[in-house]
Amino acid sequence: MPNWRSVKSDHDQATDAHTWKQDYLGQPDIDLLLAAAKKGRHGVRDHLLILMMFRHGLRVSEAIGLRRRDVDLEQSRIWITRLKNGLSVEQPVAGEELRAIKRWLARREDALPWLFVSERKQPLSRQAVNYIVGTAGTRAGLERVHPHMLRHSCGFALANKGRDLRVIQDYLGHRDPRHTAHYTRTAAHRFNDLW
What we know:
Layout: H1 10-20, H2 27-38, H3 43-56, H4 60-64, E1 71-72, E2 77-80, E3 89-92, H5 95-107, H6 126-139, H7 147-160, H8 165-172, H9 178-185
Antiparallel strand pairs: 1-2, 2-3
Helix pairs in contact: 2-3, 2-6, 3-5, 3-7, 8-9
Organism: Paenirhodobacter huangdaonensis
Protein name: Tyr recombinase domain-containing protein
GO molecular function: DNA binding
């Protein structure tokens, strides 16, 4: 007879694996990563790339797909085109992020349509983004940092701020709430004031 207590669904196993292996960065580590990105050869671009990937929970392909026309500086908004059948939405940009976008665009002398370009005037490749994020992580003294950690970091940061599951789901473009639920399950604020 099977021990039903040890049998877990695929979803429970995935959630438990996610919980045990921390694949996101807390705000202090995000701050270190952003500061380290500024110190690179292309610091203005790399800082903005990492900041936007974190703030908007962008996948690599979504970040490299951003176009200048997606950014509305007058309204302080950005159009995020989600992939993997995700919900595309307009999101606000403000403060440090808005200033970083303006700094980056002011340095650009080209009329290329992409928001993020390489020094060869091409859109950044997936490999370039992996390198940028990994190098900034190493420079910051963090263990193996990869781009998808920034998406997870966004979800956990929003959950820890007490944001509603449905809002986080729409913000990250998830169609299925199960993809968002693990952020709120482990949010530290849920356990405040229990005693």
